[in-house]
Predict the structure.
Amino acid sequence: MIVRIATEGQYELLESDAEILNELDDQAVKACEAGDEQQFREVYARLLQFVRENGASVDAGRLAPSELILPPPDVSLAEAARGFSGEGLIPG
């Protein structure tokens, strides 16, 4: 599975990583719905850290479609609330 972090690049993760990504996505949705910016920032930082630490950076010269595009690390709560709602960024 290829995940893009906007403004950073792409990372290739294992399909088995989807479960953890889904859990973090669900937590981000709850924080957005509650309007809890601090909680959102903490959860989103963990999600990005998970992708960076567990994913293999995709060579910039390799053209590969992203299955998931995450907002940039500095996304505002208002912007995030548009993507992190309902089923979140990762449809279940």
Q: What stands out?
A: Strands lie at 2-5, 9-12, 56-57, 68-70.
